[in-house]
Design brief:
466 residues, 11 strands, uronate isomerase, domain 2, chain A, 8% strand, 2 domains, homotrimer, alpha/beta, globular
């Protein structure tokens, strides 16, 4: 099912160069500096449930596509919030999935699934209504085996280190369990403070109280609030964190005066902030976080530009992360200016910017990253973590920012079995891109090999201090 | 003049796959669900006038390019509104056109013209000043023959069904004539209510009065106005319509309360709306139309983002549709939210969105269409109905929305002889795109064949209920 | 080091066509209608200083990339404004540059440098820490020779004509020297009035006084101000200028009434303009300049969309042009409308638009240029003057605007030794683009040859009246 030359150009000259480049990187360990796998998997090492619960129910890439063609989420087993009954029979869900597998043609989801089916479960036939049951049985049988448990898969996947992402309010119990276990796998956390930084986050003011309790600081006072962040960051560092992550609707930053900050925070903490105040507070907090990063060395990731929960009625019935987060036009040149003016010239600070607005690659992000010492570009993100998306990223970014202002690959996944596939796609697409540069004599072959290793392994390790 | 492998990659592996895919679709009947051909052609079946009147004078793709290089519209026979004399000698226009044929190099216009010259009129030499007269004579001679009349060409073109587009105020006499004739060609209309929905349309308030007369409802009252739409839609349906079409400067939608709607309509109907009112009214009416579509089953097309009549002085002298409609930045995520919140989760509703802002393909439209059950993407439109434009469309859309959230090809033409050429270009470009996916093992060959048939025929038929 | 087939597709069919096309244009003289070389070079014909002063210190493409990876500008010899000491040892700068040469992989800078090293200085090994000294010595030795002086290189480069760019306040002494010399090289100036048109330019009001003195008109009075421009333009024309150039943050134009203009100018001239006034004044002045161009025949260039000096702290320490000019979202459809409404239908006017926002190529600029007689598209500019950038430009522009609404190549450089490399890259990329059109039968081979000559030579000569 998986052709050994997949994703390489069919031009023989390019394909042969791509093969050689890929050979040099395909077996490198996986560095996964940013993602959303569940630390409980590694802590508890319990078997994964049935095939539908592994591949369909939790993966919004999968069920959004089925939903877009009129299949109700209930039939896919996605838990409702209003208690409406949903399908619980894994086999029924799987059959529906198999009947609609053609919808994924041409998408990265299809590539990841085929890779996992084939490589992980030894399935050699394309999923179809005809073989749905057979495939289901095969996967179910595997999942019962010891060697399909999370830790065994972690090792089989050749993961050198993986970062999960936890809320600033998370007690990190699973991470503690992992660290205290005798298992050698390296799993680190990431400090994600959105719930206590974004005044529009559900339960923001209660979250501040929880932050106070966790940190022993009065997080409803500006100085205490900042100190609480510092303490939580230190705690996350003690659980392996080397970075923070900020999922904001825009990349806006601000650099207010001290009295302005205090006045704004008072409004925000009291729950009386309007939309403009909220946006300004998020903006100011990005700058505060950058300043803290300069101090404690945590790499700062900014993921900007997603309109979360666009589908109101669906959100009310099924909650967050149901495939209805839609990218919006995003700008960085104006938005990042306050932060960059304050700390952008510090070479020891690392800020990694991610965008869902591809127009900013060549217009804004590559020129910014090709100038500011602190700024790096994250890889093609989310919808663009796909062959064409990655190719455009390299084509749009490289001529202005080069390779060394980028940070290698992030798999950014909550779908554990897709991890090897995602890294493999990235390594293949980068090999193919480099092969084209070699084939038309824009780059020497020895350089291409070196770059490929950096893109597949070295840059992520260096950028994230892993 | 037409190479059999045109538009296929020169890579031998890809080309050979492309040929096979194309072979499976090249002779499929044409489904033309959206266009601007004149129903009088099919109703009256009169011969087309001279070559210049067929190819140059009515085609703004052609004369805008000549105008951009300093050739006055008067010399091209384009009728003026101020009564200024214009060239009427077809041969003189044709010679000027032939002298400047090099201006079309690299454009789709050139491809369509060559296709029509060669395939339809048997001309084998590239148009040039040297053969202008010869070509003119050849075409003119053909146009006098019975088999070059509209109905004969319709059959020769293998058109299974074609939709024209008529104003909500059109009595549809030509459509009635066609339906009552003994001719078997299937020609349907499309409900286009811009002139009675857009308060900035010329003669809007008179148009409301005309709508009242046609419908027997008081269209100057909100309830009567809506009822008038419902009646006109029903009448259009009786003349074959399966869809409505909305050409708006933006994609903005709204979902106002009942009192707000009434207040806004009162202002609009009295002619006292300002620009903001007009925009809000158009926005509200898109949502009203979607609600009606849910009721009567008409597919809803939204064509957004063209700044009409950008060239003021030219508009005053020559009127609309003179090549001066220019795309503007357009957004959909915010704009469509009110409509999608109201009816977006209805699988039995079909809304087809078209854009002239390619940045929205991957950023907004593919993520939206890959989630909302009602939403589909129209094909690459207008300036982008061309090989590179189509290729970008597939590359930008497919990884997120797949193939099945798109609706196949629309020729969108008012140039009758270009119809086969346009479908042929689309079929070739899609075959080439699929061939690349097969050649680098992203797709199996049997899947590519199935998709190609869907893109060329099945999807349009299904999406538009044709 | 330079492969003879570089930048041609590795597909054998395309490569062989590209070679033939390129053969027909590679030796054509260079037309350089827009650039920033120093006229003093041609006037005084002094030897260039050491290799670091030639290749590193003055080239913001080079030092911005090194700076982005944490190398201080001081160590690269970039002069500070605050008197802080900077490296003056050319060899030390060169070694640092060589140690970091890998940062330029995949960038056009690398291609230009390799071209100059190889073609101009006969160096055959890629620059590296190992050969830094050897390379330095080789270049330094050459620079001492007569045949490496500016005039000799000008001739060796086969430059037919080069335009420099001077401020409206420049006395053009070097141009006078060149014209009065017995040297046959054709060097012309370009009228760049930003410093007396942009109220936010440093020293704007003093600049108006200087303009008064130079012109003998009272440039602090509206009528005198316009007359002063007319006189300076005439003077620049006498020094060979065939064009003006306008570097504005946006492309906004305006067409105010006479009283409005006077009122605005009074505010601006008195130094009391706010940001909105400044923007409106720049907008109005673009229209005034277009009107003057209609009168005196100077071609008008609009370079819009760069956020100058984005890095505040660096600007304070090192001044302008330090790699911190970052593109911003730019629009043209609304922005150019006032100017185009006034003079856009004049075929004898030539306005050339340049953008740093690639989204405008297909959405706005190609449709505008494919309609308005006065409007032409400048080539891929600045960050986009690179193989992928140029390829996207052709792909995005050609189908709507054709080739003949573009103006050929501009090297836009202040790095003299890069001039042949830049033209060569453009000729190769265009040859490769045309070869693809021929290989997939969108264009005939004889047409491709003709177009290639136009793109490499003819169009620039015609568009700029050179």
């Amino acid at each position: 099912m998986l052709h050994e030359d997949r994703l390489f150009s069919s031009d023989p000259a390019q394909r042969s160069i791509a093969r050689e480049i890929y050979d040099g990187v395909k077996d490198l360990p996986l560095i996964s500096p940013h993602g959303h796998t569940d630390p409980a998997w590694y802590a508890l090492n319990e078997p994964f449930p049935d095939p539908a619960q592994l591949f369909v129910v939790p993966d919004h890439y999968v069920f959004r596509m089925l939903y877009s063609q009129g299949i109700p989420l209930e039939k896919l087993g996605v838990p409702s919030q209003d208690g409406a009954p949903v399908e619980t029979d894994g086999r029924a869900i799987w059959r529906l999935f198999a009947q609609n597998y053609h919808l994924f043609r041409g998408t990265p989801t299809r590539m990841w699934l085929d890779h996992a089916f084939s490589d992980l479960f030894g399935i050699q036939k394309r999923l179809s209504p005809d073989n749905a049951d057979e495939t289901y049985d095969r996967i179910a049988e595997c999942l019962g085996q010891e060697r399909y448990r999370p830790r065994a898969l972690f090792e089989r996947f050749n993961i050198e280190v993986i970062a999960t992402t936890e809320s600033a309010l998370d007690p990190l119990e699973h991470h503690r369990t992992i660290r205290e276990s005798d298992w050698g796998g390296r799993v680190v956390t990431t400090y994600r403070p959105d719930s206590v930084v974004d005044p529009e986050f559900e339960g923001f003011t209660e979250n501040l109280r929880a932050l106070s309790e966790l940190s022993g600081e009065d997080a409803c006072d500006w100085d205490g609030y900042l100190e609480a962040h510092r303490k939580r960051r230190a705690f996350f560092k003690s659980m392996g964190a080397t970075s923070t992550d900020h999922g904001h609707p825009t990349a806006r930053t601000a650099d207010l005066s001290d009295p302005e900050k205090r006045r704004l925070f008072a409004k925000v903490a009291s729950g009386s902030a309007d939309a403009d105040d909220a946006e300004l507070f998020r903006a100011q907090m990005l700058t505060e976080m950058a300043v803290m990063s300069l101090d404690d060395g945590l790499v700062m990731q900014i993921h900007a530009g997603s309109w979360r929960n666009h589908n109101g009625p669906l959100f009310e019935r099924f909650g967050r992360d149901k495939g209805a987060d839609i990218p919006s036009p995003t700008t960085f040149v104006d938005a990042l200016q306050p932060l960059l003016s304050k700390v952008g010239n510090e070479p020891k600070l690392t800020v990694v910017a991610f965008t869902l607005d591809e127009t900013t690659y060549s217009r804004e992000l590559a020129p910014l990253a090709g100038h500011y010492p602190c700024l790096y570009l994250g890889p093609a993100w989310w919808f663009f973590d796909a062959p064409e998306g990655m190719k455009r990223y390299r084509e749009l970014v490289t001529e202005t920012a080069g390779f060394y202002n980028t940070v290698g690959f992030n798999d950014d996944t909550r779908a554990f079995p897709s991890i090897p596939a995602r890294h493999d796609v990235a390594r293949r697409v980068d090999s193919a891109f480099l092969a084209e540069l070699v084939a038309d004599h824009r780059l020497d072959e020895d350089e291409a090999h070196e770059i490929a290793r950096d893109l597949a392994y070295g840059l992520a390790k260096r950028a994230y201090n892993l």
